[in-house]
Amino acid sequence: MMQSKQTPWWKRAFRAIWEQFKRLNHRFLLTRWFIIIVLLLTLVSVTYLTVIAKTAHVRDLQSNLSRSTVIYDQNGAQAGKLYAQKGTYVNADQISPNLADAITSTEDRNFYHEHGFSMKGYGRAVLLAITNKLTGKNQISGGGSTISQQLAKNTFLSQQQILSRKFKELFISIEIENIYSKKQILTMYMNNAYFGNGVYGVQDASRKYFGMDADELPVQDAAVLAGMLQNPSNNPIDHPEAAKQRRNVVLQLMADNKKIPQSKVKYYQSLPLGTKDTFTVGNNYKYPSYFDAVINEAISKYGLSEKAIMNNGYKIYTNLNQQQQQSFQTDFKDPSLFPQNAADGTKVQAASVALNPKTGGVQAVVGGRNKDVFRGFNRATDIKRQPGSTMKPLAVYAPALENGFKYDSELVNKKLSYGKNHYTPKNINDVYTGKVPMYQALAQSLNAPAVWTLDQIGVNKGYEAVQKFNLPVTKKDDNLALALGGLSTGVSPQQLAGAYTAFANQGRLTKPFYITKIVDSTGKTIVQNNGSTPTQVMSKNTARQMTSMMLGVFNYGTGTTAKPAGYQVAGKTGSTEADNSTDADATRDKWVVGYTPDVVVATWEGFDSTNSEHHLENLSGTGVNSLFKHQMEQILPYTEQHQFKVQDTATMIAAKNSRQNKVTPGGSEWMQKAEELNQKLLNKGTNLTDKAIEKARSFLGF
Q: Which residues form the Glycosyl transferase family domain (predicted)?
């Protein structure tokens, strides 16, 4: 009795719990259920990891690593290559045996005796992972990675250090060992390893640090490269002392692994580094904005990862027109085509895109005037800015023609207020003529008649038209400000150019795209894209009338200084006010979008951040008009130079009036009716011709 009282309470509690557990275990077989659950989870995990390994396309690994991803233009000509963890690939017989000995001695001494993983090393890594979990660190501390595992991690997995990645790495490394020989694995690893200063692979590293090919490396230099694998920053150019110390450690490891005699270690350690740089970087990433956009489309549209695109040796065929792209890039480097920088040196930014209106294929794109950064901000595709008056043809005049208006319909040109909020649009010069024909209102970019016309046809019709043109509008934009480009989010140059393809393509809208085909390293076509089927967003007659009116923009309207010499271009200019400036001429955005039957070009200009110190001036001179004019003069001579089937509206009306003035008074009424009949027959004939051509194309499969 005394003994029972002296037993500590916690022991008594533990004994009671244990007895209760034994009764429950005996009754419900808890131990067996626990074992079954553990085995089931293990089976599921192993099955999942096996599927991951089997579907990782390991068989294509050597083919992928030995080839660079190549970009081709619209004619199938090579335009450049994409490099990431990719250097000059060399075969095993082009690599010094000294380097293989140094790397295996340093990174994985048992490489030739294991099957992709080390049990001791793996156990150590898992133990560290569990310890870090218990201490609140959601990462692993490394360790346990064989050469095969490092190859698996670098080529198939992210660098995120979590336990699940470690298990995937294990199973993929086993699959690598099942398919490739030790010699092949080591060769792939050496070609894929990073050696600092943006250099991948032993061949380029040998050139970068020692001025020789990889098959010429002596023992001491091979030890330097092997020593850099754990810390590439400790290279002989940037940190020679650290590189030498690490080299000497590697030399001793090589002796311990019986790859060099112990008697030679001190001799090798005494040798100077002998650094010599003869490495040159090829200029294969020639078109940064375009190549960035290609990568983005491959990721967003086709589900490829950046790592796969950069490393897997794809052939990517695109709509790139190298002449247009090169001329765009040259223009953007010419400061004389842009306004002066702000007082603090900030550059006026710009972006341009050129499309094929028949297919929507992007032929050229430049995303800014900054120093190129890999997959950096591309203003041609990424900005969202107010389109200003470039919205008038889309939201007002095209739907107006579709709803009974004509190109010479008289529009009210008065300063009017609309709605409960008294929305009052003003012409840029605050001058009003009472009435104005539509073609003049468009060419001169008058605001008052544009808003009046949208009010007449109904805001919703304009809103629905803009949606059909594939521009990003929301219900917030379903108001009269839509006529003047007052959108809640804005558009990019690429989106605006895409909308204008309908005017250049007989009313059929095409969507911008870059990639036409992707072929993997084995020759298999994994993507085939000829562009989406064009969408008829307005009648052919409306598209022709709109082109006729928009020719006037460059002939006598707001785009006269943007007109390329010797060419007919239709389109629209636009600008938006800088609201936070007291300067009456302060402008936030300037736009020109113009087209021929062969190409659509949209160009934007402005500051990234607009304020009182950073805005454009709404004055003539150097600016977006000058840039657009120069761009078109450079690219149009190399297009097919198809001509518009319509004349400028003002020219047609002037010719019509001239003929009417020449006829006799008695015959004027008859002549007018004859001309009207002739015009109707002409339009009818053109429509029939278009239909015949369309049927012929359909029959021939064009």
A: 80-254
What are the start-end ranges of the E strands in 607-690? Answer: 616-617
Q: Which residues pair with 528 in a beta bridge?
A: 517
C-alpha–C-alpha distance, residues 128 and 134, integer Å: 10
Select from 610, 618, 558, 609 the least CA-distant residue to 584. Answer: 618
Residue 274 to residue 223: CA distance in whole angstroms: 13
Cβ-contact 624, 350 below 8 angstroms? yes
Q: Is the pLDDT higher at 614 or at 95?
A: 95
What tokens appear for 296 in the block?
Answer: 């983005």
φ, ψ (nearest 5 deg) of residue 264? -95, -5
Q: What is the pLDDT of residue 134?
A: 66
pTM for this one?
0.75
Contact between 67 and 194 under an 8 Å Cβ cutoff? The reply is no
The Cα-based distances of 544 to 442, 647, 690 in angstroms read: 15, 9, 12
pLDDT tens digit sequence for 123-146: 665 666 666 666 655 443 444 588
CA distances from 394 to 273, 325, 444, 614, 647 (A): 68, 27, 16, 30, 20
Contact assessment for residue 531 and residue 359, using Cβ atoms and an 8 Å cutoff: yes
d(CA 181, CA 496): 54
Query: Using an 8 Å Cβ cutoff, are 636 and 600 in contact?
Result: no
Amino acid letter for position 502: A
Burial of 702 (0-12, 13-18, 19+ CB in 10 A): exposed
Residue in 373, 375, 329, 370 with CA at minimum distance from that of residue 352: 329
**Torsion over CA: 435, 439, 442, 445 (sign):** negative
Q: For residues 246 and 27, which has the higher predicted lDDT (pLDDT)?
A: 246
Alpha carbon distance, N-terminus to C-terminus of the chain: 103
CA 330, CA 287: separation in Å to the nearest integer?
A: 11
pLDDT score recorded for residue 309 = 87
Decide if 164 is catalytic.
no
Q: What are the angstrom distances between the C-alpha of 355 and each of 38, 298, 465, 558, 596?
A: 59, 19, 21, 23, 11
Per DSSP, helices labelled H in 116-239 are 119-134, 147-156, 163-179, 182-192, 202-210, 219-227
- CA torsion, ordered 442, 448, 454, 459, to nearest 10 deg: 140
Distance, CA of 640 to CA of 321 (rounded, Å): 13
Largest CA distance in the chain: 141
Residue type, 604: W
Q: Annotated catalytic, 389?
A: yes
Catalytic residue among 96, 105, 107, 577: 107
Q: What is the mean pLDDT of the chain?
A: 85
DSSP β-bridge partners for residue 303: none
